[in-house]
Amino acid sequence: MATFRVVLVEPQNEGNVGAVARVMKNFGVEDLVLVKPCPLGPEARKRAMHGASILEKSTSVADLNEAVQGVDLIVGTSGVETSSEKKFARIAISPTDLETRTAATGGLVALVFGREDFGLLAEDVERCDVLVTIPASAEYPILNISHAAAIVLYELSRGRSPHRSRRHASGLEKERLHRAFADLLAATDYPAHKRARTSIMFRRLLGRAVPTPWEFHALMGVLQRATKRIARLERGR
Fold it and tell me: DSSP letter string over 5-30?
């Protein structure tokens, strides 16, 4: 069964941080990481209520990469509709779809919430495996981060059960796949100006797939074998 870490990227309002800690307490999530947060004082503790212990145990880090260290699946959140595959690095799914994908997944899942004013930057989204958006009114689709966290955590709590789940490929294993895919692009002389977008597509695809260890090893074998064979043919010339 998956465990969850909530990551707040550069929160600007201490009351919001406290409110998120309170919501986490409601749904039994204890791991809170803050990326370059605003100062936390009495207002944060007041809003946290019984979640004050989560606030006290929270970790502050310098950047998103540090916040998701050791994580197996990185889930970003966005209030922006992302229907165009070419325009956006990730195509957003609903919290219900996210629950379906994580219900049987082991490992640590990071739920990344962006800044109150303009959310996650493009480079933050590219770091994520999956993007989630909450269906809301087109007139005002952007939710307060504590409200967004409550909805996402509620949906995820519905998928928790005591049965033993299958292990899925870890974050480290998936990063090895991304490096192997990049090596194959280089070995095939794939056009340099297309490599970044194609790599984003592959990361997006892998994030949706949630591969098992067997699938990871099979795909790694194909990518590495193809890259090595191309290298041998090049040397033979």
Answer: EEEEES---HHHHHHHHHHHHHTT--
